[in-house]
Amino acid sequence: MNNFRLLSVGDRFPAGLFDLIHSRFKRVLNFTHADRIISLVSPDIGAGPFQIVVSELNTDFVQVLKHKPGSIVINDKEEISYPETQIYQSGFTIYHPEPALLQKNLSLLKDMVVRSYRESPLVFLLTGKAYTASSAFDRGLRNRFAKAYEVLCRGSFADAVGKFKGRGWGLTPSGDDFNAGLLIGLYIRQLSEKKELSNIRSCIYHNSLGTNLQVNTYLLQAWRGWFSERWKNLLAAIVERPDKIEQAGEAILRQGETSGADSLAGFLAAWEITL
Question: Measured between alpha carbons, how far is 193 from 102 in angstroms, rounded to an integer?
Fold first, then answer.
């Protein structure tokens, strides 16, 4: 037996029995569910729409997870109940946007991201200032992303995201993280500017999908407006709490080696496009 303590259950976490393990890490256990990933995570990862957060998580111990309304069962033995108050709500709404404040706060975020990751092959797109790539691969990646960004700014969305798709390092390649961030940015821009961007967002989403289930899960969340706790904190800071932008932005930058920076580059790029 383990001393699990359930902290939150994502509002999009499905009911059912899950025994097909996709990947296992120290702080995250991923299960395959249809076309997406659902996860058991440690508290430092934070809440999310498809995540159950438990303390004292031992990912080597867990083999089977069952979820039903009001409880989870570990390995068909250990049942943990939870009240409705522990259901994490992933939605985000802007009720009274102030355009001038929003733009000022986005500039603060952009300055922080550029300052921290100036030589990222994606963050440099926000400044237009080329940097010296450390290898032939990085140089090719930088040039490819620069061309993809030009296409994006021309409004050829399907072509642009196809050029970002699957490119870069890591379990979630940089170009995929950029596309997910772009979807988040356009979702918030639709809310704040009262523009109908559903067709554009749908085009970007469907042309970004591939065979990587982790990437596809992030893309689905971004398209639907189902945000992780870290992203909700940042969005709330951008809308009304500029004093929290640095802290919230840094929390996202700590995601993966470059995943956070790459997704923030996409998010900020969404505000550079003329629509």
Answer: 11
> Cα–Cα distance between 38 and 104 in angstroms, integer?
36
Backbone angle region of 42, left / alpha / beta, with phi > 0 → left and psi within -120 to 50 → alpha: beta
Burial of 34 from C-beta contacts in 10 A (0-12 / 13-18 / 19+): exposed
Contacts of 131 (CB under 8 A, 6+ apart): 118, 119, 124, 142
Distance, CA of 239 to CA of 102 (rounded, Å): 6
In the chain, the amino acid numbered 77 is K
* 236 neighbors 247 (Cβ within 8 angstroms): no
Helix boundaries (H) for the chain: 99-116, 136-153, 157-164, 174-193, 198-208, 213-224, 229-240, 245-253, 259-269
At which residue do the structure tokens 């109940």 appear? 81
Three-state secondary-structure class, residue 29: strand
With residues binned 3-state (H G I as helix, E B as strand, rest as coil), the percentages for the chain, rounded to 5, are 45, 15, 35
Number of Cβ within a 10 Å radius of residue 88: 21
The residue among 48, 9, 45, 49 whose CA lies nearest residue 27 is 45
Q: Six-digit token pair at 74?
A: 């570990």
The CA-CA-CA angle for residues 142, 146, 151, to 5°, reads: 150
- HSE-up (13 A, CA, CB side) for residue 2: 20
pLDDT tens digits, 73-88: 999 988 999 999 999 9
pLDDT, tens only, 171-192: 899 999 999 999 999 999 999 9
Cα separation of 164 and 147, whole Å? 10
DSSP code, position 124: G
CA gap 112, 133 in Å, rounded: 21
